[in-house]
Amino acid sequence: MSIYSKKDKETLDYLQPIEIAEGVFWVGFADMNIGLRCNPYLIVDGDEAVLIDGGSRGDFSTVMMKILRTGLDPHKIKRLIYQHYDPDLCGSVAHMEAVINNKELQIISHRENNIFIHFYSTTPKKQCITTLGYSYTFGNGRRLEFIPTPYAHAPGSFMTYDCKTKTLFSSDLFGSYDNIWSLYLRSTDDCTKCTPENKCHVNGRKCPINGILAFHQRVMNSAASLRYALEQVAAREVTLLAPQHGSIIDSPDQMKLMIERLKSLEHVGFDYFVQQNLRETSK
Ligand SMILES: [Fe+2]
Ligand SMILES: [Fe+2]
């Protein structure tokens, strides 16, 4: 369940860090001029913190300003978790490292990603989730679990589950291409009975589901890898789905709906390309 009421969610100040669960802060850049916004998340527990999918080089100053506004001394960030290696989430590695300025800082990712993360920065030690036993435990005992989602979309893609708040940081899974954005997914109770149209027949706004479906068709490798990743989500008790793009999903009905809609996507990745090509050539 969300810590914000429906009304509060409409009036959130995106210029500030936003606490989405106990000790979990959204520290992203709500740039309204682009269709692909990134959501870095900071988890603070006791005297230490980890940053998940820290963001692009261009977003660095905004992300760091928000980290500072949580009251955290960046020196206390012990781990940078990168759930794959794309520039939208890794581009600021060297900048982060310089400001955090802590010899104990380590990067947690998958070895398939670490090969490429090395090209952003060679300095911090890079750990693979497999050798860490798929988990990280804070000094106070708070446990993060790492869940592999291979080829959804990178070979080493994974998600991170915060056992304390049951928040699932799903990386590109549940992401969206959309020029209309809100931190929390807006939908109506009628969405479960609806086929997504351009405009919602209830509130007249642009339907956000289309942007989510389009993102997965173009970014994920295949329907098989997408379905495997969705099964990992469905197998866990999740109260908050926090993707790296698009909007946070905090209602069980919305989660169920999105999992079902995404599972039924037929043309994903290369199959989507082939289908689009066939359409173009038959015109
Ligand atoms: Fe990606
Ligand atoms: Fe991404």
What does this structure look like?
The protein is an alpha/beta fold and 283 residues long. The chain has a single domain, classed as Metallo-beta-lactamase, Chain A (4-Layer Sandwich). Helix content is 29%, strand content 19%. The chain has nine helices and twelve strands. It has helices at 6-10, 60-69, 87-90, 93-100, 111-117, 208-219, 223-234, 252-263, 270-281; strands spanning 18-21, 24-26, 41-45, 48-52, 77-81, 106-109, 125-128, 135-137, 143-148, 158-162, 167-171, 240-243. Strands 1-2-3-4-5-6-7 form a seven-stranded mixed beta sheet. Helix 5 links the parallel strand 6 and strand 7. The longest helix is centred in the C-terminal third of the chain and has 12 residues, at 208-219. The radius of gyration is 18 Å and the shape is globular. The N and C termini lie far apart (47 Å). The mean pLDDT is 93. One fe (ii) ion binds at residues 86, 88-89, 172, 244-245. Residues 86, 88-89, 172, 244-245 line the site of one fe (ii) ion.
List the helices and strands and how they pair.
Blueprint: H1 6-10, E1 18-21, E2 24-26, E3 41-45, E4 48-52, H2 60-69, E5 77-81, H3 87-90, H4 93-100, E6 106-109, H5 111-117, E7 125-128, E8 135-137, E9 143-148, E10 158-162, E11 167-171, H6 208-219, H7 223-234, E12 240-243, H8 252-263, H9 270-281
Helix pairs in contact: 7-8
Bound molecules: fe (ii) ion (FE2) (2 copies).
The site of one fe (ii) ion (FE2) has 6 residues, from helix 3.
Summarize the structure.
The chain has about 280 residues and is an alpha/beta fold.
- Overall shape: globular
Strand content: 15-25%
Classified by CATH, the class is Alpha Beta
The beta-strand count equals 12
What would CATH call the homologous superfamily?
Answer: Ribonuclease Z/Hydroxyacylglutathione hydrolase-like
What Rg is obtained from the alpha carbons, in whole angstroms?
A: 18 Å
Biggest beta sheet attributes = 7 strands, mixed
Strands ordered across the widest β-sheet = 1-2-3-4-5-6-7
Number of domains as seen in the coordinates:
1
Could you report the average pLDDT, rounded to the nearest whole number?
A: 93
Assigned CATH architecture: 4-Layer Sandwich
Tally of helical segments = 9
